[in-house]
Design brief:
Radius of gyration: 19 Å
Number of strands: 0
Distance between the termini: 41 Å
Structural class: mainly alpha
Shape: globular
C-alpha cells in the first residue's frame, strides 16, 4: 500500500503542477520516477512511444504504465487516479468561477506567465527524446569528437526527417505518422 500511495502522490503532484498536456508532464514524470528508481530512461522512452499508439491522453497512459510496472494493477489504478484527480478538481473550481475570471487582468497575467513556461517544458521533453532516440549517451561527452558518426542513429534521423516532411509538406496526421514511424522502424532497425 505504501508504494501505491507514493505512486498516487507522484502523479497527483504531476497532474497538479503541470499545464499544457501530456508532453509537458513527461519531464516531471521522468524526474520523479528516476528519484524513486522506478524505471530506467530507455524504458521511459519506450513508454512514451507506447503512449502514442494507444488510445487516451499521454499522461494517463504514462501513469497507468509506470504504475503497473512499479506496483501491478493497484499501482496502475493509484497512479492513474493521481494524475487525473487534479484536473477534475481544477476544472470544477474554474467552471464555478469562469465568469468572474474571464475578464480579470490577474487571470490574464497568470496565463501570460504559464504560456512560456509550457513552451520551456515542451523544449525539455524534446531534448530528452532527442537524447534517448537520435544520439547515443556518449554524444554529450568528449568522445563525440573521436567518431561523431558512431554517436548518432542514422535510421532514427531518417525517421525524424521523414516525419517532419510528411507532417509539414503533406499534412499527414499524428496517428498515421506514428503508425508509419513504427513500420519504418521495423524496416530500418
Amino acid at each position: 500500500m505504501g508504494l501505491w500511495l507514493k505512486l498516487f502522490y507522484i502523479f497527483f503532484k504531476v497532474g497538479l503542477f503541470s499545464f499544457g498536456g501530456g508532453y509537458v508532464m513527461l519531464p516531471m514524470i521522468y524526474q520523479d520516477i528516476q528519484t524513486f528508481g522506478m524505471m530506467p530512461a530507455d524504458d521511459f522512452s519506450n513508454l512514451v512511444a507506447l503512449s502514442q499508439v494507444t488510445p487516451g491522453p499521454i499522461a494517463v497512459n504514462a501513469a497507468t504504465y509506470v504504475g503497473f510496472r512499479a506496483g501491478g494493477l493497484g499501482g496502475a489504478v493509484f497512479a492513474t487516479l493521481g494524475v487525473s484527480l487534479p484536473s477534475i478538481i481544477i476544472i470544477l473550481i474554474i467552471t464555478t468561477f469562469l465568469i468572474k475570471f474571464k475578464n480579470s487582468p490577474t487571470a490574464q497575467a497568470v496565463l501570460e506567465g504559464i504560456r512560456p513556461a509550457t513552451v520551456g517544458m515542451l523544449a525539455a521533453a524534446v531534448i530528452f527524446f532527442a537524447k534517448t532516440s537520435l544520439v547515443t549517451t556518449d554524444f554529450f561527452s568528449l568522445k563525440v569528437f573521436q567518431n561523431p558518426l558512431k554517436q548518432i542513429s542514422i535510421p532514427a534521423w531518417v525517421i525524424f526527417f521523414l516525419t517532419l516532411l510528411a507532417s509539414k509538406k503533406f499534412k499527414i496526421g499524428p496517428i498515421a505518422l506514428t503508425i508509419l514511424g513504427g513500420i519504418v522502424g521495423i524496416w530500418l532497425f
